[in-house]
Amino acid sequence: MNLNIPIIKQLSECRNLLIAGMGGGFDIFCGLPIYFELRRLGLKVHLANLSFSNIAFSKSAKLQQTILLTETLVGITSETEELPVYFPELYLAQWFKKELNEAVTLWCFKKTGVLPLLTNYNLLIEHLSIDGILLIDGGVDSLARGDEANMGTVTEDAVSIAAVSKLTQVPLRLIGCLGMGAERDISHAHILENIASLANSGGFLGSCSLLKQMQCYQNYEKALLYVQSQPQQEPSIINSSIISAVQGHFGDYHLTYRTKGSQLWISPLMSIYWFFELSTIVEQHLFLSELFLTETVADVIQVMLKVMQTRPRRIADKIPLV
Question: The organism sits in which domain of life (predicted)?
Fold first, then answer.
């Protein structure tokens, strides 16, 4: 059984597609089922991630077997010197080598403001001859436009969207979300309202579901569980929730110790991909323009504090399903 990707025609027309985790941490893992499905079809696909890894992306780091494009953009391989820290990109590269005997480079962007990230994207596009970008979000807070009652952890997503929106030389720029319902502190009723608005403008491109019978899903699950089993590697709540949902669990089910003591609501919604035109998300965004000139994480935080304090919000609402 194969993943029925609704945007497969657009993706198939790319000579070199970049799947990039937009919100940091384990976001790139949410793109793995698509990566495996496209590879099965013979397409050339590259992987990148906004990295939360606690490593210094600089010459002084002396990380062996890395490809250093800038001090804030490196290519991690299975041979990269292992550091005893949170480092999902390295462990994923090791899984590819150990389980599939493939030498896969994981491109890591350090957290910055929009301007350095834009520079790094431009360099990577030139280095890999990229003609298509699929930004991947673990969860759906990337669909927040800035006036929701609760926006979740939208900061990193907004920086990635802002940077990629400026890459006008790339013909295809799309966004994919996986894991609806796995996030906390987000108004899902407002997110669904935003999706409706995107559908109205032609920016919603369809959805599809992961099933445990799919080989692309099975590879994703194996990769995630391998990475999460590494010493000192904190597991991903969102990806763990996605796996729980695909496996058929429901309600207050806990795959990882990180959620013990809290109440979860695992549901089939978490196994659904949602795809969008990046340009239409940019058009409905209310504060993206304020991020374009940011250089540092501190700059971004300052903008976000202003947004949180001054932006009018929609009234909190619940989804009327019983």
Answer: Bacteria
